[in-house]
Amino acid sequence: MSLSGRKIFWLLLIVITLSACKQEPMIKLSKENQMKIEKKQAENKETQLDQINNKKANTSDQVVIDPNSWIKEGEDVNYNLENFLPYNANQVKILSNGKTSYVEYMDQTSQQMQVRETLADEKTIELYRWNTEVIELYGKFEKEHRFTNYLKNSIEANQLEKGLIILQSPLKVGTEWLYDGNIPSKIVGLYKEVNIGDQIYQEVIEVVTQFEEGERHQLFAANKGIIAQWQENKEEYYLAESITDNVMLVSKMDWYMPQSSTEEPFIQKETVDFAWQTNDTLATAFQRFYYDNQWITPEIQVVDIYESNGIAHLNFSSGVVASLNRHPAGEKAVAIAMMVNIADYYSVNQVSLEVFGNGMLLNAISYPPNGIHQIDPKWVKQEDSSNTQTPLSSEELTLE
Prior knowledge:
Helix content: 10-25%
Order of helices and strands: HHEEEEEEEEEEEEEEEHEEHHEEEE
Number of helices: 5
Number of strands: 21
Mean pLDDT: 83
Strand content: 35-45%
Shape: elongated
Largest sheet: 13 strands, antiparallel
Radius of gyration: 34 Å
């Protein structure tokens, strides 16, 4: 056999040997072990199917965020910053994480707003300010008391070491700024139309902030504020489930109501509706309640409500005493209800009833020393006599 013939012979032998090895396994399993492996494979397959089904069940109600379906704006478009405030006056926003938010006060002159957020038992106040260049969150703290204007008062227990820049002009793709002085934020998208779930929004800005734990995405819609937020490497996200404009907030709260009785107690705690709109003062909100419940007649005004040195002041226009007497429960019961409710609101035990700043002279209750009434526990049922809880503690809201 020639040299070339021997090479061909050995090559054929190697090919035949490799083919035989591929067809015949090197390790032969006993029948018992083979059955164990097949059983384990079946169990693993079943587990994988369960995991897939569970994942489908958990995500079936989730909204898909798909930027590829959004309609982009033209490159030369530049939005107006004031149209993208995080929240708007007389607007209630309910998010998918259960948080409810609304503006309590908005001062267009100083360009500031005060937002109240509630999530379960957590109640937070956020303060924002803006100009032609930036929108900034400059205050955040927890507060039980509602209806206090912190835009005109000092900030207590501010949780922010420095202001956080939410948006910065010009509102176009590529604009960058430092969120807290260190962390970069950037506008990455302007969209003519965005659809999320069954909601469609016009004029939307997408902002990305570069946190160490992952990029945070936020969507701001014109005249709707923040409508979505999600963060990479985290499953948590929230969307605006509902945004309702031009509403009157109606809070469910405990309030002492006058009873048509000549004997003590003259008042009784009931759950009632208390209405509020952005930029209501405490006086206008209480006045609305007094009107709605016929404690005073429409020609009477609540001039002012405030607390000073542990004394709650309730100041009316003239004619209020005659107005109180028109209520079926009578002057005494209505006056006591007014005093107990305002004392509970400020967590004090002394109240001054006034007419244009002067002491109010009631017919059924003697004028007290210096015009300061002391809250009498006999006025209410014994179990309701504590003044440690404000009656305005509920955050259950309805809309009108």
